[in-house]
Design a protein that fits this description.
Blueprint: H1 2-7, E1 14-19, H2 26-38, E2 42-47, H3 53-58, E3 63-66, E4 81-82, H4 88-97, E5 102-107, H5 109-113, H6 118-131, E6 135-143, H7 149-158, E7 161-167, E8 174-182, E9 188-197, E10 203-207, H8 239-247, H9 254-259
Parallel strand pairs: 1-6, 1-7, 2-3, 2-5, 3-4, 5-6
Antiparallel strand pairs: 7-8, 8-9, 9-10
C-alpha cells in the first residue's frame, strides 16, 4: 500500500507517520519527499525537529526551518525561518501565494504539539484539509511515545492514512509498517508491510511478512451433567416396555367403556386438544 501512496495511485489527503524511540520514521518521510521530487510535485517542507543534513541536502527549494531563538540565521533564499511554532500564518501564506497544487510535509509535528494545544492544531489542519483545494496532500511525522493517547487518537481520526513504524526483528535496516487507509468511499484497508530504505532514501523490497502460525489450544467442552444418572430407579424404558405401555387401556376412556359389559352408565374421560399429557411424567414433577 505504501508503494501506491508513493506512485500516486492512491492519494490520501493526510498521511500521518507514527514512530517511537525504538524505530525512527524520519527516513520514511524522506523517502516520501524524494518520490514527490521525482514526480515534479511542488513540496513545502516544514522542519521543526533538529536540523537534519538529510532533509537539507535532499530538498532545498522550499525548506522552512524552525529557528525560534534566531541562532541559525536564514536557512536559504527561497525558504523562510520559522521564528515560532505557530504554523497557521505560514500555511495561509502558502495557500495564497501558490498558484498550483502543493504538498506540505511536516517534519516533527511533536515539537509543534509541545507548544500549541491539540485543539488549535486540530482546527488548523481540519480547515487546511477541508477548505483548501490547493493543498493536494499533507504528510506529517509525529513521535507517538511523546504524547498521550488522546492526542494521538485525535490525529489518527483526522488523518486519511496512518502509517505506524516498528522495528524489524530481522535487521536494523528493515522496518515494519502497519498502514491504515480510510478511503473516500468509506472503506477501511489495513496492511502490514516490511520494507528497506537505503541511504539514498529509496524504498526497496516491499513485502508482506509471513507470520508464524500460532497453535491455539483446543477449547475445553464442558458436558452438562445427566440428572438421570446414578439413580436408584430407572427413568428410561426398553422397547418391549414401551410396547406394553402402548397396549395398556386406561380406565374411564372410551376404549375401556366399549370393552366393558352391561348397560349401566359409565364415567369416562376424553382428553381435549389443550390437555398436555406427558406419559413419561404424568404428574409433571420431574425436572428432566
Amino acid at each position: 500500500m505504501i508503494a501506491k501512496f508513493l506512485e500516486g495511485h492512491e492519494n490520501p489527503k493526510f498521511i500521518l507517520i507514527e514512530d517511537t524511540i525504538n524505530r525512527n520514521g524520519k527516513n520514511l518521510l524522506n523517502a516520501f519527499l524524494k518520490h514527490y521530487i521525482k514526480r515534479d510535485i511542488k513540496v513545502h517542507l516544514l522542519l521543526f525537529d533538529f536540523p537534519s543534513d538529510d532533509s537539507g541536502s535532499l530538498y532545498k527549494e522550499e525548506l522552512n526551518q524552525s529557528d525560534p531563538l534566531g541562532w541559525n540565521g536564514t536557512c536559504n533564499t527561497n525558504g523562510r525561518v520559522i521564528t515560532n511554532y505557530n504554523i497557521q500564518p505560514i500555511l495561509e501564506d502558502l495557500i495564497t501565494q501558490e498558484n498550483e497544487n502543493i504538498i506540505i510535509t511536516v517534519d516533527g509535528l511533536s515539537n509543534v504539539l509541545l507548544h500549541i494545544s491539540m485543539p488549535e492544531i486540530y482546527q488548523m489542519f481540519h480547515k487546511l484539509l477541508s477548505h483548501s483545494c490547493k493543498v493536494k496532500q499533507v504528510v506529517a511525522l509525529v513521535h507517538k511515545d511523546v504524547h498521550d493517547s488522546g492526542t494521538v487518537t485525535a490525529l489518527e481520526h483526522l488523518a486519511s492514512a496512518v502509517i505506524q513504524v516498528h522495528a524489524s526483528e530481522i535487521g536494523s535496516s528493515l522496518m515494519i509498517c502497519h498502514t491504515l487507509y480510510k478511503k473516500p468511499t468509506g472503506k477501511v484497508l489495513r496492511e502490514e508491510e516490511q520494507l528497506c530504505i537505503t541511504d539514498s532514501h529509496d524504498i526497496k523490497n516491499i513485502e508482506i511478512p509471513l507470520h508464524k502460525k500460532v497453535v491455539r489450544p483446543e477449547p475445553i467442552i464442558h458436558q452438562t451433567p445427566d440428572p438421570a444418572a446414578n439413580l436408584t430407579f430407572n427413568l428410561t424404558l426398553k422397547d418391549d416396555e414401551k410396547k406394553a405401555r402402548d397396549q395398556l387401556v386406561l380406565p374411564y376412556t372410551r376404549e375401556a367403556v366399549s370393552l366393558s359389559s352391561g348397560g349401566t352408565g359409565k364415567i369416562f374421560y376424553e382428553p381435549d386438544e389443550a390437555d398436555d399429557l406427558d406419559e413419561d411424567d404424568p404428574d409433571d414433577d420431574l425436572d428432566i
